[in-house]
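Reopening this one. Same input as before:
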Amino acid sequence: MVTFLSILLALASILLIVLVLLHRGKGGGLSNLFGGGVSSSLGGSAVVEKNLDRLTIICGSVWAVCIVALGLLLKQTK
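Same output, byte for byte:
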């Protein structure tokens, strides 16, 4: 179980970093590198940003649950 949670934590960490970098900041951020600047002029960009927000929140929640679960499991084994 600890191994599974560790792998899930590593994957969630990498995905969370990517999702945060894709967010559009004041300067445009890394999202412009992947075409975010082009889609920001379109009308549907708010929907894309909302979905990116949701994915980031879900990934952050999975990350936090993994941290707490790993902490509890490792505390019990000591």
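So the earlier flakiness isn't reproducible anymore. For the record, The two ends are 16 Å apart (CA to CA).
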